[in-house]
């Protein structure tokens, strides 16, 4: 039977109990299922074989069930970025993937959210022109973090987690003024997205540059350490914001070479901040370092003396205080792991390894090691021995200083013939720059031929190396 479309209709739609439309929107967003009642009066008509039947004031009452959004339980943070921050604000740019299980599309307009962490509101976010379609939806949000001064301890935890690779459970809850539309604002009250903020993938500390490092070994497997270093940052707040370290405490510190410990600091480690910017902090470090393995430490010193460069890794746990746009933040138990490559003592010389402790006398005395200058050389002795005393200048092109103590040497000719023995006068303290080292020794009587030629060359003013 043919039947016409309605000519006109007046239908009122409301939820069961005739609550407001705002309450229905609230239930639709919050609940897994809602009931909807259609209640109204319609006027229509029907084409019959004998003519047209006019149906006026037909009552329509029907209740249907709709699948709700169920608070959009499936919400995942796709991105979280703070790099657009300024010197006066911490700006958040983030996006969340929401899955709308309903088959109904809902236009919510601009929606404001409170950022809640551990029950404390730390900031606000806004998502513009929100339309939630069935299925997956990407919700883009921007805003600021602006905790109250009394809430800074909670903000510290969130920042510390973010910087140290720890995810944080955060709630984005519709604000009291979630929408400028009164009906939608009523419907959004209580709407909250439970999600996890991923930590930054960029390490806070980009590297370390030792400006100087000085070691004084003791006799009890310890060494006195003083150093000055510049720690470089990758600021999570971006290049135009504020992140200045104002205090740094090293709870523990270890120095490693090629993954092996060469020393661990004995608390307390003395740290002073010399300069700070959003890109770096320059500090001085002082304290006692315990050497766990003398052989490993000696191998590092040998590498440093004989190589173009030496690698030092600094690991430790610290407490950091930094000034940010929202005030002082405290980063407790912050792990540091940075590597610095320092030039070795032979970096500006030929890449030829020498055993400095055993060959230094003959090399220095005869000016065979590049860059080392003999300032004064004196021979002496008696009827049974020939002695020598010389003053040298030894360049240290590195930023590392080390007190080697009083060194004793075995002296060999360049042909490998045993000549005698020598030692430094006092401690051989190698600081960066030029070092004056005084050596004195004795030529062994068994090396008469070598001694005679050395004496002959010395008397005639020749610096030729005796062969035998």
Quick description:
This protein is mainly beta and 468 residues long. It contains six helices and 24 strands.
What are the SSEs and their pairings?
Layout: E1 8-15, H1 21-30, E2 33-48, E3 51-67, E4 75-81, E5 90-100, E6 106-117, E7 120-132, E8 135-145, H2 152-163, E9 168-174, H3 182-188, E10 192-197, E11 205-217, E12 222-233, E13 244-257, E14 260-276, E15 280-290, H4 294-306, E16 309-324, E17 327-343, H5 356-365, E18 373-381, E19 386-396, E20 400-403, E21 408-412, E22 418-424, E23 429-430, E24 433-443, H6 448-460
Parallel strand pairs: 11-20
Antiparallel strand pairs: 1-2, 2-3, 4-5, 5-8, 6-7, 6-9, 7-8, 9-10, 11-12, 12-15, 13-14, 13-16, 14-15, 16-17, 18-19, 19-24, 20-23, 21-22, 22-24
Helix pairs in contact: 1-3
What does this entry look like structurally?
The protein is mostly beta strands. The chain folds into four domains: 8-67, no CATH class; 71-197, Immunoglobulin-like, CATH 2.60.40; 205-343, Immunoglobulin-like; 356-460, Immunoglobulin-like, CATH 2.60.40. Helices cover 14% and strands 55% of the residues. It has six helices and 24 strands. The strands form four sheets. A nine-stranded mixed β-sheet has the order 17-16-13-14-15-12-11-20-23. A seven-stranded antiparallel β-sheet has the order 4-5-8-7-6-9-10, covered by helices on one side. A five-stranded antiparallel β-sheet has the order 18-19-24-22-21, covered by helices on one side. The chain is rod-shaped, with a radius of gyration of 40 Å.
């Amino acid at each position: 039977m043919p039947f016409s479309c309605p000519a006109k209709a007046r239908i009122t739609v409301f939820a069961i109990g005739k609550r407001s439309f705002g309450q229905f929107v609230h239930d639709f967003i919050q609940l897994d299922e809602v009931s909807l009642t259609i209640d109204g009066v319609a006027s229509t008509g029907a084409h019959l074989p004998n003519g047209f039947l006019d149906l006026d004031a037909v009552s329509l009452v029907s209740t249907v069930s709709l699948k709700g959004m169920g608070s959009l339980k499936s919400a995942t943070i796709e991105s979280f970025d703070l790099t657009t921050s300024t010197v006066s604000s911490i700006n958040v740019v983030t996006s969340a993937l929401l899955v709308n299980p309903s088959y109904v599309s809902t236009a919510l307009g601009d929606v404001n959210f409170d950022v809640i962490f551990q029950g404390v509101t730390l900031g606000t976010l806004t998502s513009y022109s929100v339309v939630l379609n069935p299925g997956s939806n990407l919700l883009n949000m921007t805003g600021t973090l602006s905790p109250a001064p009394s809430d800074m301890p909670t903000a510290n935890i969130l920042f510390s987690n973010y910087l140290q690779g720890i995810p944080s459970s955060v709630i984005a809850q519709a604000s009291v003024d979630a929408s400028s539309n009164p009906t939608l604002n009523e419907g959004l009250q209580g709407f909250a997205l439970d999600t996890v903020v991923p930590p930054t993938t960029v390490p806070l500390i980009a590297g370390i540059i030792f400006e100087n490092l000085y070691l004084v070994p003791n006799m009890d497997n310890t060494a006195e350490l003083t150093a000055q270093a510049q720690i470089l940052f990758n600021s999570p707040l971006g290049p135009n914001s504020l992140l200045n370290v104002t205090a740094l405490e090293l709870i523990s510190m270890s120095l490693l070479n090629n993954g092996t410990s060469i020393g661990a600091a004995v608390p307390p480690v003395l740290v002073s901040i010399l300069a700070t910017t959003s890109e770096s902090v320059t500090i001085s470090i002082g304290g006692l370092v315990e050497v766990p393995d003398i052989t490993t430490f000696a191998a590092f010193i040998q590498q440093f003396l004989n190589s173009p460069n030496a690698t030092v890794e600094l690991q430790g746990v610290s407490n950091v205080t930094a000034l940010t746009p929202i005030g002082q933040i405290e980063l407790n138990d912050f792990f540091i792991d940075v590597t610095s490559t320092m030039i070795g003592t032979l970096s500006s010389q030929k890449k030829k390894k020498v055993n400095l402790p055993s060959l230094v006398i003959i090399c220095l005395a005869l000016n065979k090691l590049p860059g080392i200058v003999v300032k004064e050389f004196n021979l002496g002795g008696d009827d049974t021995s020939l002695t020598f005393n010389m003053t040298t200048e030894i360049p240290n092109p590195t930023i590392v200083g080390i007190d080697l103590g009083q060194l004793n040497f075995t002296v060999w000719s360049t042909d490998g013939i045993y000549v005698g023995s020598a030692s430094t006068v006092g401690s051989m303290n190698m600081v960066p720059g030029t070092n004056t080292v005084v050596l004195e020794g004795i030529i062994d009587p068994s090396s008469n031929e070598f001694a005679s030629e050395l004496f002959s060359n010395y008397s005639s003013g020749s610096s030729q190396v005796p062969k035998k």
